[in-house]
Design goal:
The strands form 7 sheets. Strands 8-5-7-6-10-9 form a 6-stranded mixed beta sheet, with no helix packed on it. It has a 6-stranded mixed beta sheet with strand order 17-14-18-22-21-19, sandwiched between helices. The chain has a 5-stranded mixed beta barrel with strand order 23-25-24-26-27. The chain has 8 helices and 27 strands. Helix 1 (about 15-25) runs parallel beside helix 7 (about 335-355) and helix 3 packs parallel to helix 7. The longest helix is centred in the C-terminal third of the chain and has 19 residues, at about 335-355. The protein is elongated and about 100 Å long. The chain is an alpha/beta fold. It starts with 13 loop residues before the first helix and ends with a strand.
């Protein structure tokens, strides 16, 4: 079941792989969510104002509501106004303000009829009578938030595609939208393969290692705002793999690590094809991460009990259009953890962002190299690096299984294919990671 070893010339480059993945159409799934469950999701439809905001002429501060016509001209003596009432926030006065009158008013309270200005309490002095105040010249209309100044009824206050954060939640609450139509989180299954793997709680034998990939993928996918289903570990046996891969195809996306190369026990690509997955990418000119697979299969429509001939017929049968709502997007990742990490952040993330209704915004940063680097080989190279502001320090990376070095990196320094040697002090491009 092994595949022929391809030469580097037969592998596709990173740019071509990205073009292929980005060209695949995806169908985000919209759903209605209670407001507080929509945090971190993107709006599938706009939110409109249900009335004018503010809904009334509102005082911006504590003071006195007045008629601007009663305010003395600049250079004139203060004017004495009679205080005829008080309006607190949450109250309403329907008594019109007459010439020569004022009403005490609190921040957020509606202006009484006839008032068109608010004199801050700090600008007011006691008048000659107990019920009078003295006010000086000024344009006190600027202390009023006028009805509809922030937004008119029917105006879009949150755009479709906008990410829901705390401020957006507040806006939705203010306009009375308790249920939001949002793009749902992609449902992604993760699976590790290999007889050499054991789960965290099981002591490994001298020839085994603990399964670190699923924990890493879980963390990456949660950062990508996906819902994650952990399918655990599958041994390198075709029947076991076929069963668990079928389960994985029930989801929007499936990330499988291990079993992607050309060894005797690398069964995954062939079984994926038997299950109806069309493989669009099978090998890449990337370091680390060459044994990478990307394909699209039918989501959950493979019968549970079929023989090998039936699988072959399923694989040959016409499938739904690429990226249709019935598709599962499959990313086959190398078993070595740093390779799986690089391929997930470089390729899988792009498609999952679109599945969540969002744009593809790559976290690139520019930096200045702090040590010399030799010429690069024929594969695009992603080197873990430490970042201090704009300073970039390549780390002493020991290979695609070196998780300890990756855990201390803030970015991946990208070296193009066949890039010449580069000296310290030169600009470099960094794929930024979460701070560590």
């Amino acid at each position: 079941m092994g595949m022929e070893t391809p030469g580097l010339d037969s592998l596709i480059g990173v740019g071509q792989a990205i073009e292929l993945i980005d060209a695949v159409s995806v169908t985000p799934r919209s759903t209605l969510k209670p407001l507080r469950q929509a945090l971190g999701l993107r709006l599938a439809e706009a939110v409109m104002a249900d009335r004018d905001y503010p809904p009334f002429d509102k005082s911006q501060m504590d003071g006195y509501a007045v008629r601007q016509a009663d305010v003395p001209a600049e250079g004139s003596a203060p004017a004495a106004l009679k205080v005829v009432g008080e309006v607190a926030a949450g109250q309403w006065s329907d008594r019109p303000l007459e010439p020569g009158q004022a009403v005490a008013i609190m921040t957020g309270a509606p202006l009484p009829p006839g008032a068109d200005g608010v004199v801050p309490i700090e600008q007011v002095r006691p008048g000659p009578a107990a019920d009078q105040i003295l006010i000086s010249s000024g344009d006190w209309r600027r202390m009023v938030s006028w009805r509809g100044a922030d937004g008119k009824k029917g105006q879009t206050v949150l755009q479709a595609g906008q990410l829901i954060g705390p401020a957006q939640m507040a806006v939705a609450a203010m306009v009375g939208t308790g249920m939001l139509r949002v793009w749902d989180r992609p449902r992604v299954a993760i699976l590790s393969t290999g007889d050499e793997l054991v789960e965290i709680g099981h002591p490994p034998s001298p020839w085994q290692i603990r399964n670190s990939n699923n924990s890493m993928l879980y963390g990456l996918l949660r950062q990508m705002n996906a819902d994650v289903v952990d399918l655990g570990i599958s041994p390198d046996r075709p029947d076991d793999l076929r069963s668990v891969l079928r389960d994985g195809l029930m989801h929007d996306a499936l990330l499988v690590s291990g079993g992607m190369s050309m060894g005797k026990y690398d069964f995954v690509p062939k079984i994926l094809q038997e299950l109806g997955v069309r493989l669009m990418i099978t090998k890449l000119r990337i370091k680390p991460g060459k044994p990478f697979v990307f394909g699209i299969g039918p989501r959950g429509d493979i019968p549970p009990e079929v023989d090998e001939q039936a699988y072959a017929e399923i694989a040959r049968a016409p499938r739904p259009p690429l990226g249709s709502a019935g598709s599962c997007y499959v990313f086959g990742l190398p078993g070595n953890p740093v390779s799986a990490f690089v391929c997930t952040v470089r390729f899988a993330w792009r498609l999952l962002a679109r599945l969540g209704g969002g744009p593809v915004i790559e976290p690139w940063r520019d930096g200045i190299l702090q040590q010399d680097l030799p010429a690069n080989g024929p594969r695009e190279f992603y080197l873990p690096a430490r970042m201090e502001g704009e300073k970039v320090y390549p780390l002493n990376w020991r290979g695609s299984a070196d998780l300890f070095t990756l855990a201390g990196a803030q970015g991946l320094l990208v070296r193009p294919e066949n890039a010449p040697a580069i000296a310290a002090g030169q600009p470099v491009r960094i794929l930024h990671l979460a701070e560590s």
